[in-house]
Amino acid sequence: MAESITDPTAPASPGARQRPAPRFPVVLEGQAALVTGANSGIGKAVALGLGASGADVVVNYVTHPETAEEVAHQIEAGGRRALAIKADVSSEEDVQAMFAKAIGHFGTLHIGVSNAGLQRDAPLLDMTLKQWNEVISVNLTGQFLCAREAVREFRKRGVVRDISVAAGKLVFMSSVHQEIPWAGHVDYAASKGGVMQLMRSIAQEVAPLAIRANAVAPGAIRTPINRPAWETPAAYRDLMTLVPYKRIGEPEDIAQAVAWLVSDAADYVTGATLFVDGGMTLYPGFTTGG
Ligand code: NAD
Q: CB–CB of 262/171 below 8 Å?
């Protein structure tokens, strides 16, 4: 019987259910990955998951260096190399310095996961230009800057057959809100809609170089970014009205999807968005949530 984990915080209800224990096949040995925003939530789980899959990992952070170092130590404890690097993904200078340091340390990079993101929520009429610019700079411009640096390195090195049949793999962290409009969060929804076409256009452009680009679109995942949506039993119950599969997503649900997308098992997958959302995008009436 498959190992499973009971959700300790889900209120007892017919919908509360178990989830499988995460599994990471070791298929990324010899590869180096860079994950942005890797000291919290989804990014942390992705960094640990890629490490468990055999990759060496750059753990990017912008605040709280101690949490980034802790993630790096956990990866090293599993037998892989890790390096925490501070960089604001919305700064071209920071991103270029981070990639130079990462490539200097690991020799090259094979995998780039642009995960860093934030919300600055307000009704349209109250939304400031500062809020709008901050969200677009981190969630969209940051993904452009990281993808450009990663592709420069992938193209320079090319395919090394013993390592991977692709020259490089990019994953863009999107959201169900690349598809579902989100009243009260127009900056965030616009940034994720932008990520979708950024990813698809890059995928088309770099496919002839044997570089793959895909996105993962999480639904409601239990992380600090959406704590109010799950931290009380009442909030959790409300959230479940939006999730046909009737459990909240865990960061490891996303990490496993990313680990598969960057592996050679997904070699014919490019330009795709993988929705990991318990069916949330199947409800057309959805207006609020993660
Ligand atoms: P989180 O707040 O736990 O993590 C966000 C990470 O991004 C943090 O490490 C933060 O420090 C980092 N970050 C923010 N600004 C940065 C900057 N300028 N430079 C570098 N790093 C920066 O939230 P999370 O839920 O783990 O979010 C991760 C990604 O997943 C985001 O892109 C988010 O939009 C997306 N997402 C999350 C959910 C969810 O339900 N949690 C749903 C859909 C999409």
A: yes
- Nearest-10 Cα torsion for 269, 271, 276, 277: -150
Task: Give the Å distance between the CA of 41 and the centre of ligand 1.
Answer: 7
Q: Write the CATH number for 220.
A: 3.40.50.720
Say whether 236 is catalytic.
Answer: no
Atom of ligand 1 nearest to the CA of 88: 19
Does some domain include residue 9? no
**Which of 182, 225, 227 should be mutated for ligand 1, with most atoms under 8 A from CB?**
225
Inside any domain, residue 17: no
Split into its structural domains, the chain has a count of: 1
pLDDT digits (tens, 9 = 90+) for 117-152: 999 999 999 999 999 999 999 999 999 999 999 999
Beta bridge partners of 6: 18
Of residues 81 and 10, the one with the higher pLDDT is 81
